[in-house]
Design brief:
The chain has one domain: Nucleotidyltransferase, domain 5 (2-Layer Sandwich). It is built from 9 helices and 13 strands. With 374 residues, it is α/β, with parallel strands linked by helices. The chain has a 6-stranded mixed β-sheet, sandwiched between helices. A 3-stranded antiparallel β-sheet has the order 11-12-13, with no helix packed on it.
């Protein structure tokens, strides 16, 4: 991985550094002033106790997919996809380039923790690499004719933007569930206001106009400032990592919000699959699924924990710089966000400074280990 690639979230060295979150707030005010006003009104409802912050599930796992993802992890995700029929999805475009940036998918599991994958399509491996073929296989299994896809708006329309990346078959055949249309066929309501009405929760939408192609996963190294040292470097590292944390939470919550509404509308019905199913490569495995019984369940969200992979933030030639204020990560460590309410308070205030990431609890793992999915 070449860490010399410039982040889309970086500014030119000759100009004063403006933190990406500050740039986002300025962009919101300039491009969507009415949306900024609505966001402020919802935040005030939260402060007055009328709304609570959007509640994530209590247990879930989040994995990034890009050119630095371990191929063994993709194998694990493929195995899980073969036994999953219900998925929620969302996408994000970069506000500056208007190009697709991320594809987020939730594996909806019966009585098990959900799995979230965030595919960073601007950082995919070479299309001729074994890793890319594995990612392609994963997407082909998820977006097949026998799977139920839940989305806010047309999933097929959203996925069409990703055709140039060759992640799945040209003619996608899925069981599409447009929650926005099913909720109200006569009026296109916003996801944020629907969550407010149905659950009295505040779904933060500040990051809609973000620079989504900046490279969210710290493994990509795009958050590293290459032209500064000392306190300025420490400050920029903090701001860049904070920004990516905000975008990650936004991306995850949008997918969970769709799932939450799908459960409330009684759209998700699980089927029991025979334990003796033998899966063939990609296209044949889904043909052997035998439907036995259906069970509808209700969601009871109380989410607290998020697990993601990050890597060593410094290259060899940077290790000799003075980094007394920089938090150095070890390869393949896990970050558990164990206090989402506190994190929500940090992100909520538009005019407040985002404090240090003291809510992170670090759990170190062997560098050669690959997270096991169950």
């Amino acid at each position: 991985m070449n860490f010399s690639r410039k982040s889309l979230c970086s500014t030119q060295a000759q100009h004063r550094y403006v933190p990406p979150y500050e740039r986002l707030l300025r962009r919101n005010q300039a491009w969507k002033p009415k949306k900024v006003k609505l966001e402020a009104e919802l935040q005030e409802e939260y402060r007055q106790g009328t709304l609570t912050p959007f509640q994530q599930p209590q247990n879930y796992r989040c994995y990034y997919i890009h050119e630095r993802t371990d191929i063994l992890l993709i194998d694990e995700l493929i195995d899980q996809a073969k036994i999953t029929k219900h998925y929620s999805m969302d996408t994000e475009d970069d506000a500056l380039t208007h190009k697709p940036a991320t594809l987020q998918v939730e594996y909806i599991k019966q009585n098990l923790s959900s799995i979230i994958i965030i595919i960073e399509v601007q950082y995919l491996p070479s299309s001729t690499s074994p890793l890319f073929r594995k990612i392609q296989q994963l997407c082909s299994i998820i977006f097949t004719s026998q799977n139920y896809i839940y989305s806010w708006g047309s999933a097929l329309q959203e996925l069409s933007k990703f055709q140039p990346f060759q992640l799945f078959n040209t003619n996608i055949a899925i069981i599409e569930n447009d929650i926005q249309y099913l909720y109200d066929p006569h009026e296109k309501k916003s996801l944020q206001m629907t969550i407010r009405y149905e659950f009295q929760e505040y779904l933060n939408k500040i990051a809609t106009l973000a620079e989504w192609a900046c490279g969210l996963d710290l493994m990509l190294g795009t958050y590293l400032p290459l032209d500064v040292v000392g306190r300025e470097r420490t400050y920029r590292l903090h701001e860049e990592k904070k920004y990516r944390s905000i975008l990650q939470e936004y991306a995850i919550n949008d997918v969970f919000a769709v799932t939450k509404l799908a459960y409330k509308m009684n759209l998700i019905k699980f089927t029991t699959l025979p334990s003796t199913i033998q899966y063939e490569p990609i296209s044949d495995d889904e043909d052997e699924l035998q439907i036995q019984s259906e069970l509808s369940i209700n969601i009871e969200p109380q989410y607290e924990e998020l697990i993601v992979h990050v890597t060593d933030e410094l290259e060899e030639n940077e290790l000799f710089q003075q980094q007394e204020d920089i938090e150095v990560f070890q390869p393949n460590q896990q970050i558990s966000i164990i206090n989402p309410m506190k994190n929500f308070h940090h992100i909520l205030g538009i005019d407040e400074n985002y404090p240090a990431n003291e809510h992170f609890e670090l759990h170190y793992h062997n560098a050669s280990s690959v997270p096991q999915i169950s």
